[in-house]
From TrEMBL:
GO terms for biological process: D-ribose catabolic process. Its cofactor is Mg(2+). The keyword Translocase does not apply. Its EC number is 2.7.1.15. GO terms for molecular function: ATP binding; metal ion binding; ribokinase activity. Substrate binds at N9, A10, D11, G37, K38, G39, A40, N41, E137, D274. Homodimer. This is Ribokinase. Pathway: Carbohydrate metabolism; D-ribose degradation; D-ribose 5-phosphate from beta-D-ribopyranose: step 2/2. Pfam families: PfkB. K(+) binds at D268, T270, A304, R307, G309, S313.
Length: 323
C-alpha cells in the first residue's frame, strides 16, 4: 500500500484586478478555500485512482485542519497518521490577477512541526507500506528519518519540491527521484544551463538515485535507469532515445526512455505534478515497471490538467481508462 509523508495546507485564494504593491490595499473577489499541500494532494490523487493510501502529516487544531482531514477522508485516504496540533495549519495566501499571474505567501505552520520523532512513532504505518512517497514541504530531517525507517524492500519516491540540495543519503534512496524542469535545474545547479532534458536525467542519475523521472509538462516525461551490461544485451526493445545507452563506468549503463504525453486541452496545470507522482508511486507498488508506471502517471497528469484546481481536478481510475 502507499504511504505519503508530506504537507497539508489550506489554499486561500482571492481573485484581484491587480496584485497589491507595497503599502497598497486592493479589493478582491470572494475568498475561496481549497484543500492543498503536496502531501495531501498526492494522497487524494492516489486514493481517487483506487489506491489504498495513508497520509502521515500534521495540521493545526483549527478549522483549516478539520477541513483538510475531512477532504482526505472523503477521498478515501486513511487519516490515522494525520497528527493534530503544535502550530496552526499550513496556509498558502494566493492572489490571482486576470491574466492568471499569482502572488503567494506560504506559512508552513504545522507542516514545519512534522518531526523525525513523528516518523518513528508512525512505525506501524511505515512497516505496512510498499511505497513511501515524499516531497520537501516538510523539514528535511523528517525526510531523512523516513529514508532511515523504510521497511525491508520498501520503495522510496521523492519529488523534491520546493527544490533544494539533497544529502547523499536521501538521493541514494530515491527510486525514482521525480523532478520537473525547474527542480532539475536547482538540484543540478547553474551548470545545467544549456543542457537538454535528457542530459538532466543522466546527470541527476549520476548524483546517486536508483532511478530518475523528469516531467516535461505537455511533452510527457523521461525515465532514466541504470542497468547491467547483461540486461542491455538481452533487451531487444531498443526503446532509448538519443542514442539509447551511455556508459557511466563500472559496467553500468544508463537507459533513458521517453514517456509519451496524452494530448488534451489544458485548462489548469495546478497539481499535475502531484497527481503524476502519486499515480507513479502507486503503480510501482502494484509491481509495474518504472516505464509502465510513468506511462500510467502521464495519463493521470494529463487528465488533471483538463480541470481547474488541484485536488478537485484529480481523475478517478475509470476516467484515466477512458482517456
Ligand atoms: P509540475 O506540475 O510539477 O510542473 P509537469 O508540468 O511536468 O509537472 O506535469 C506533470 C505531468 O503531467 C507531465 O509529465 C505530463 O504527463 C502531465 N501534463 C502536464 N501538463 C500537461 C499538458 N498540458 N498536456 C498533457 N499532459 C500534461
Amino acid at each position: 500500500d502507499l504511504l505519503v509523508v508530506g504537507s497539508a495546507n489550506a489554499d486561500l485564494v482571492i481573485d484581484v484586478e491587480r496584485r497589491p504593491a507595497a503599502g497598497e490595499t486592493v479589493l478582491g473577489g470572494d475568498l475561496a478555500v481549497h484543500p492543498g499541500g503536496k502531501g495531501a494532494n498526492q494522497a487524494v490523487a492516489a486514493a481517487r485512482l483506487g489506491a489504498a493510501t495513508a497520509l502521515l502529516a500534521r495540521v493545526g487544531d483549527d478549522g483549516h485542519g478539520r477541513l483538510l482531514i475531512d477532504s482526505l477522508r472523503t477521498a478515501g485516504v486513511d487519516t490515522a497518521g494525520v497528527l493534530v496540533g503544535g502550530a496552526p495549519t499550513g496556509v498558502a495566501l494566493i492572489t490571482v490577477d486576470p491574466s492568471g499571474d499569482n502572488s503567494i505567501v506560504v506559512s508552513p505552520g504545522a507542516n514545519g512541526r512534522l518531526t523525525p520523532e513523528d516518523v518513528r512513532a508512525a512505525d506501524g504505518l511505515l512497516r505496512t507500506s510498499r511505497v513511501v512517497s515524499t516531497q520537501l514541504e516538510i523539514p528535511l530531517e523528517t525526510v531523512v528519518e523516513v529514508v532511515r525507517s523504510l521497511p525491508e524492500g520498501g520503495r522510496f519516491v521523492l519529488n523534491p519540491s520546493p527544490p533544494r540540495p539533497l544529502p547523499g543519503e536521501v538521493l541514494a534512496a530515491c527510486d525514482p527521484l521525480i523532478v520537473n524542469e525547474h527542480e532539475a535545474k536547482v538540484i543540478l545547479g547553474d551548470s545545467a544551463a544549456g543542457d537538454t532534458p535528457e542530459d538532466w536525467a543522466r546527470r541527476l542519475l549520476a548524483e546517486g538515485p536508483r532511478s530518475v523521472v523528469v516531467t516535461l509538462g505537455a511533452e510527457g516525461a523521461l525515465v532514466a535507469e541504470t542497468r547491467t551490461e547483461t540486461e542491455r544485451r538481452t533487451d531487444e526493445s531498443g526503446a532509448g532515445v538519443g542514442g539509447g545507452v551511455g556508459a557511466v563506468g563500472g559496467g553500468v549503463d544508463v537507459e533513458v526512455t521517453r514517456v509519451a504525453s496524452v494530448r488534451v486541452d489544458a485548462v489548469d496545470t495546478t497539481g499535475a505534478g502531484d497527481a503524476f507522482t502519486a499515480a507513479l508511486a502507486w503503480r510501482l507498488g502494484t509491481g509495474a515497471t518504472l516505464a509502465e508506471a510513468a506511462g500510467y502517471a502521464a495519463r493521470v497528469g494529463a487528465a488533471a490538467v483538463t480541470r481547474r484546481g488541484a485536488q478537485e481536478s484529480f481523475p478517478t481510475g475509470a476516467e484515466v481508462e477512458a482517456l
